[in-house]
Design goal:
Length: 540
């Protein structure tokens, strides 16, 4: 059997290496002389032989870049590896190695939030609530994109460009980003797939070559992938490996704030937003782009008002607990954090208010904001604001039950506006359609407050604009809608006749008191059956 295996390996080597006695080839690609020993050894010894085929498919191979270029090393290097009977090589090539040929890309990456090891500066959930081995197999696997290498470089190029092929088509595929941008705290791949962008991509992606070279001449595919918006060149926009160059918000943070990341080089948030808008305007009208970003910005500002409430109730609970620990100590009893662990920001999230505040930021709050940014309605709504609002009201309920008078005042109120103990942002109408009045006759706050609602909202939006959190263009678009709100709220058009006709159908279909209604029949289906529940049967 051993002889047979050796014969098969020899045969494979002959086929793969080709017939020429002057040059070693793999799948028709000539192996550089400096790398011939690597290829021969890996194939003969059966050590990861597939990587040889992968390399042969790469642009590196076609340009004569072999193993010895990327894996060069000296004996004192941190990743030096002595090949048995061969040279010393680098076991873990770093961005510094890549920068020999790709200095611009490595520099851009190093200056991006991809390379920012924020999770080491504030790592509460991982440092406190997980066994370390779980963190290594979980968090670190994705956050290794910020790897701080022994040679002073930062990052992992192969997080996006798969080893040995370094295939651009793979890097451009949304599922590559989705390896890490997934899950309850940053479900970007799920949000992308829910959007119309993702819908069209999934329908047609097999028809496209994602390995194209992007340029400012145009976008060669009909819908954006992640890289189209965040990295690729587009008309009027340079391509970049700095994924922060087009982002105007830090919407992953506990508070949404306008980014200042590398402001001295990338410009302020307005400049970054202009880059993103330039990409969007390849497919969308200028007014739609402005309106959509206005809506997104108002969602981020609205999130901050909910966050403000979580902070207020946590601080209030802590104040009562410190003032009267015998009576209120149980409602806010944080873990005692040693001084050397003070950078762990959420170490005290044992009681309900602190736990709700954590989830209201790290999970629901992110989904609310990011869903609005990526056209993912369900993540904005049911996975976002609905659960965020629930967290807030549960916090108030918890504190009310434990005797905090400020919480009792809200919880025991009969006003439906008690569910909004925060200031609000809004704009008349929506970004998708010009509608009739039915759409906006439903919201409770509109009904109860009328014009007073819009007067309050205007003051809030104007304050955000004057403090530089909204652009001039956004403020003008907001005013246009405000000054024409009868149009955008549908009052100008009255009721839609289809809506009126469907009212009659609803009455026939959903009438719990009419025996002819299917709703009534569903409710009373087993009234006459006389059968017990399983629990009742067991009790007997």
């Amino acid at each position: 059997m051993k002889g047979l295996r050796m014969a098969l390996k020899a045969c494979l080597l002959t086929v793969i290496l080709g017939a020429s006695s002057y040059a070693l080839t793999v799948n028709g690609v000539e192996v550089p002389k400096s790398s011939e020993g690597c290829v021969e050894c890996h194939l003969k010894k059966g050590v990861a032989p597939k990587v040889i085929e992968q390399w042969a498919q790469s642009k590196h191979a076609k340009m004569g870049v072999g193993c010895a270029i990327c894996h060069r090393a000296s004996a004192n290097d941190g990743d030096a590896f002595q090949c048995p009977g061969g040279p010393i090589v680098a076991s873990h090539p770093t961005p510094k190695d890549c920068s020999m040929c790709h200095p611009k890309e490595v520099k851009e990456f190093t200056e991006s939030k991809h390379a920012y090891p924020f999770w080491l500066y504030a790592n509460a959930d991982r440092a406190i609530w997980e066994p370390i081995v779980a963190t290594k197999a979980g968090c670190e696997q994705c956050h290794n994109i910020t790897a701080l290498h022994w040679d002073g470089s930062v990052g992992e190029c192969d997080a996006c460009h798969p080893k040995h092929t370094f295939d651009i088509a793979v890097a451009r595929n949304p599922y590559t980003c989705g390896e890490c941008h997934i899950g309850p705290d940053h479900p970007h791949i799920e949000e992308y797939l829910e959007s119309k962008h993702g819908n069209i991509f999934m329908t047609h992606y097999k028809e496209w070559d994602l390995g194209y070279k992007s340029s400012q001449a145009g976008i060669p595919i009909p819908v954006p992938t992640c890289t189209t918006c965040h990295m690729d060149a587009a008309p009027g926009v340079e391509g970049t490996h700095n994924v922060s160059a087009r982002l105007a918000w830090e919407s992953q943070a506990p508070w949404s704030y306008r980014t200042i990341w590398f402001k001295e080089k990338l410009g302020d948030w307005k400049v970054k937003r202009q880059r993103m808008e330039a990409v969007c305007k390849n497919c969308h009208s200028p007014n739609f782009v402005t309106d959509y970003f206005l809506q997104m910005d108002l969602v981020n500002l609205q999130y901050n008002e909910l966050r403000r409430q979580f902070v207020y109730w946590n601080n209030l609970a802590k104040k009562y607990a410190e003032k009267n620990p015998k009576k209120y100590g149980d409602i806010f009893n944080p873990v005692k954090i040693p001084e050397k662990l003070k950078k762990v920001i959420n170490g005290g999230w044992v009681p309900q208010p602190a736990k709700a505040m954590y989830h209201g930021w790290h999970h629901e709050g992110r989904r609310f904001r990011m869903g609005a940014e990526m056209m993912a309605a369900d993540y904005t709504q049911w996975h976002g604001i609905w659960e965020l609002q629930y967290d807030l009201m549960e916090t108030i309920h918890y504190l009310a039950e434990n005797g905090i008078p400020e919480a009792k005042k809200i919880w025991e109120s009969k006003s439906p506006l008690k569910f909004f103990p925060y200031r609000v942002y809004d704009f008349p109408g929506n970004v998708w359609s010009i509608v009739t009045s039915e759409m906006y006759e439903t919201p409770m706050a509109y009904k109860l407050l009328g014009d007073k609602y819009w007067e309050m909202v205007k003051k809030n939006v104007e304050a955000a604009y004057k403090k530089g959190w909204l652009s001039d263009e956004e403020w003008q678009r907001w005013l246009e809608r405000y000054n024409n709100r009868d149009k955008y709220l549908g009052k100008k058009f009255g009721h839609n006749p289809v809506f009126e006709a469907y009212k009659k159908r609803k009455k026939a279909e959903l009438n719990a008191k009419n025996p002819n209604s299917p709703l009534y029949q569903a409710i009373h289906l087993l009234d006459d059956a006389g059968t017990p529940t399983l629990f009742e049967a067991g009790e007997k």
